[in-house]
Amino acid sequence: MSAIIILSLVAILVLYLGLFKKRKALLPVTLIGLLLAIVFECSLWGKDAAALYSGMILFDHYALAFSMLLIGLTVLIFLLSSGYFDRISEHVAEYYALLIFSLTGALLVVSFHNLAMLFIGLEIMSVALYILAGIRKKEEASNEAALKYFLMGAFSTGFLLFGITLIYGASGSFDLAEIKRYVEEHVQTLPTLFYAGILFLVVGLTFKVGAAPFHFWTPDVYDGSPTLITTFMGTVVKTAAFAGFLRLFILCFSAVADFWQPVLLVIIIITLFIGNINALVQQSMKRMLAYSSISHAGYMLFTLLTLGEQASGALLVYATAYSVASVTAFSVLLLVKKMKGSEHFEAFNGLAKTNPMLAFVLTLAMLSLAGIPLTAGFVGKFMLFSEAIGAAHIALVVLAALNAAMGIFYYFHVIINMYFRSGDEVHIAVGNSYKAVLLLTLLLTLAIGIYPNWLSSLL
After folding, report:
1. Domain range for 390
2. Percentage helix, strand, coil, to 5, in the chain?
3. CB-based burial of residue 454 (10 Å sphere; 0-12 exposed, 13-18 middle, 19+ buried)?
4. Is the pTM of this model over 0.90?
5. Is 37 within 8 Å of 103 (Cβ atoms)?
6. How far apart are CA 408 and CA 418, in angstroms?
7. What is the count of structural domains for the chain?
8. Of 33, 361, 98, 140, whose CA–CA distance to 229 is shortest?
9. 3-state DSSP call for residue 114?
10. Between the N and C ends of the chain, which has fewer C-beta atoms within 10 Å?
């Protein structure tokens, strides 16, 4: 809880710094606050976890691991923000504050122990992003992104609230432990009301994670939002939503998995094919990453099909691998667009000749997203596929492997452009903060790919 309080105070402090025109202090204060939040999260590790504030939140190892991941990713994103927000607006304090508030909501989502807190966390996380998506008020694409995100977000919130209401009407409680006890005691006599509530929760949460067929908002919102905001959406927000999704279903609804898992199975298959097929035909790097995020949502949903002891660890490894590679890809995209003014694949032509290290880091990120061995992405897919095979979902694994092969094609599109096509010989300057982010993501991708047990064993 200390981390949530610290982040809330830092966000308010940042707003005051902006009010008094202390622009140079915004980034250092933000980074210090985030690092302090990580320290407080680490201090809770190994202590007995108990639900706090009348059972509203629970900081167990699951919540702490994902919280530290989310804060760490946000640190990387803020390191990339040096000078970025200045080019968009004169008032940059709002960007920092809204991102911190959104992160605060994400921490609530991964540590909730009450359905009311799940709703509050998702709304805090989302409302800030509705504003950030449309922060470029004079750009049509940004306005479109904000409007679509708000409308689809409100629509999905309606499903989520209705599902929570039905679960409460059947069980008489918002508390996860009470709901679990109710399900175990009445597993053969659960009312239709309860089953309907589960379905509405599935619809609402799959909207939040961007899974098909509730993915309509994802490509346009990711494409129209400022690139750094897209990075935050595709990593921090998606990881938090999946962690909350798994926490709810593995704890409360595993006893009735035979009811909702067939629905989820269909959603996974549709998500994999829609994400990968659409990513194949994109000419924009940013839009390709948006569609690939849909396909990765399909892979991460595997953990809800297995519900085994290793499911949470597999999700942590896969989410870390995907997020780290995405941060790398978006950071290189930011540099290329700043220099060449384009997000299309052609803008990456000849990058290996002018910036070999930049091309190498991006290549490793693409290989990780594609699931090539010795990268973090391969380990994540291997763990998910192994869990699925253990749960007798062999046909699904075959389909997922075909989709993974499809993904190799569009990820290698970027690599081919960098190494085998000629382009403008323009050297791209890389600042120290970008170098630090790229070096750290490179090391993490290799470390998880070569020795993943240090991360998966946390859970």
Report:
1. 2-456
2. 80, 0, 20
3. exposed
4. yes
5. no
6. 16
7. 1
8. 98
9. strand
10. N
Tokens encoding 86: 């200045």
What is the mean pLDDT of the segment spanning 174-185?
A: 92
Helix axes 192-209, 257-280, angle to 10 degrees: 20
Buried b vs exposed e over 12-49: b needs ≥16 C-beta within 10 Å? Answer: ebbbebbeeeeeeebbebbeebbebbbeebeebeeeeb
Cα dist from 394 to 274, 342, 401, whole Å: 21, 42, 11
Structure tokens at 184: 């175990």
Backbone Cα Rg of the chain: 21
Sign of the C-alpha dihedral computed for residues 119, 221, 128 and 80 taken in this order: positive
Assigned token pair, 204: 């609402």
Q: What is the pLDDT of residues 12-30, one digit of tens each?
A: 998 888 877 777 888 889 9
CB 142 within 8 A of CB 130: no
d(CA 385, CA 398): 9
The single residue listed with the structure tokens 């008032």 is 91
Residues, the chain? 459
Handedness of CA 2, 120, 63, 167 (dihedral sign): positive
**Tokens 């679990």 — which residue?**
180
- Which tokens sit at 249? 């279903």
Q: How many CB atoms lie within 10 A of CB 439?
A: 12
The Cα 265–Cα 388 span in angstroms is: 11
User: Among all chains, which residue has been given the structure tokens 């494409």?
Assistant: 223
Q: Which of 206, 244, 183 is nearest to 58 (CA)?
A: 244
Cα 442 from Cα 305, distance rounded (Å): 31
Check: CB of residue 97 under 8 Å from CB of residue 124: no
- What Å distances lie between residue 21 and 91, 227, 240, CA to CA? 9, 25, 33
Integer CA distances (angstroms), 238 to 43, 83, 290, 295, 396, in order: 26, 25, 12, 12, 23
